[in-house]
């Protein structure tokens, strides 16, 4: 393990302080021992490494972008969603942090065990509902008096928006099949896991028109326990290396490429003249090209030289015969 190396000036100053009595050697030993002791709270057990938290944050960055696009299209309004933070805390602390009355959607995420919670701030939920019903997106917090129609509309809005995008965001790790199981407004009625169970809370900063608030995603440790090894950078890099296209995908892409139209032209030659000569050009004037008559011409594909050709005729039409392929930079490939 690498150690801190003192400079010569620091060593001289330390020896001088010890010899003059300004610093005690025993005191240095005690300070060194104190540094080795760290406070650990067993109620806030850290079950996820920093690497795994970064992977979860990366997944939900993608989820936030997908969700922004979906809600912007559905509500025909400016919607911006971004990851504000990703923390691991006890479940009890998460429940205490959410408002007494809020929008809570509980999803099962087969084939993973357990369930996850989406907590949507009422300001955001009502702004979306107002836009859905043709309003300007005004925020109104009357969560304790939700009508059956409002409950149904909100459930459908978040169910359709979250399920497909959540599946796509997690597709690089697992093929998830989420289902909305409960719609609640009181967090005290939800007891997904024990109070001390570690959960990952992903907070999404959300703006709908002029209204803003948070969408919090609570993911218990038990849900991710079976796929924790896949949340490492090593797994992601290995997965990228081993990922190969299926033969049918390659064939489909090849067929589409073959149907693409290209602009092909043949360059007869080049010449340089002055602007004055250009201005005095008249009918039947002759411009001498630098191209020799016995040299092959260049065929350009999308204005890039790709082949050498020779001119001729085929069935009374002007044609060219391909002689060779030009390498990158216009150099001829000797075959």
TrEMBL record:
Coiled-coil positions: none
Pfam families per UniProt: FliM (PF02154), FliMN_C (PF01052)
Main location: other
One GO cellular component term: plasma membrane
Domain Flagellar motor switch protein FliN-like C-terminal residues, every copy: 256-326
Keyword Electron transport: no
SUPFAM superfamilies according to UniProt: CheC-like, Surface presentation of antigens (SPOA)
GO MF annotations in UniProt: cytoskeletal motor activity
Protein name from the UniProt record: Flagellar motor switch protein FliM
Species: Gracilibacillus halotolerans
């Amino acid at each position: 393990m690498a150690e801190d190396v003192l400079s010569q000036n620091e060593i001289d100053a330390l020896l001088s302080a010890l010899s003059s009595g300004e610093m005690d050697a025993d005191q240095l030993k005690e300070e060194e021992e104190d540094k080795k002791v760290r406070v650990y709270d067993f109620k806030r057990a850290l079950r996820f490494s920093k690497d795994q938290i970064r992977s979860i944050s990366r997944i939900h960055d993608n989820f936030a972008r997908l969700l922004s696009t979906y809600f912007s299209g559905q509500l025909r309004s400016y919607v911006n969603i971004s990851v504000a933070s990703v923390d691991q805390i006890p479940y009890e602390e998460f429940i205490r942090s959410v408002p007494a009355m809020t929008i809570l959607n509980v999803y099962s995420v087969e084939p993973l065990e357990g369930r996850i919670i989406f907590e949507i701030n009422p300001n955001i939920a009502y702004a979306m509902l107002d836009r859905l019903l043709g309003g300007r997106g005004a925020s109104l917090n009357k969560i304790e008096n939700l009508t059956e129609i409002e409950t149904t509309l909100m459930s459908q809005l978040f169910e359709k928006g979250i399920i497909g995008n959540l599946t796509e965001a997690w597709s690089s790790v697992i093929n998830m099949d989420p289902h909305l199981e409960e719609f609640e407004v009181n967090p005290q009625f939800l007891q997904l896991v024990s109070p001390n169970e570690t959960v990952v809370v992903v907070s999404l900063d959300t703006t709908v028109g002029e209204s803003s608030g948070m969408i919090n995603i609570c993911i218990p440790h038990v849900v991710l326990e079976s796929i924790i090894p896949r949340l490492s950078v090593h797994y992601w890099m290995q997965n990228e290396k081993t990922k190969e296209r299926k033969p049918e995908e390659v064939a489909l892409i090849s067929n589409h490429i073959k149907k693409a139209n290209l602009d092909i032209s043949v360059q007869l030659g080049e010449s340089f003249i002055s602007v004055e000569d250009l201005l005095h050009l008249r009918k039947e004037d002759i411009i001498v090209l630098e191209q020799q008559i016995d040299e092959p011409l260049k065929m350009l594909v999308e204005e890039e030289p790709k082949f050498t050709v020779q001119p001729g005729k085929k069935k009374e039409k002007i044609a060219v015969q391909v002689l060779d392929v030009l390498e990158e930079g216009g150099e001829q490939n000797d075959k």
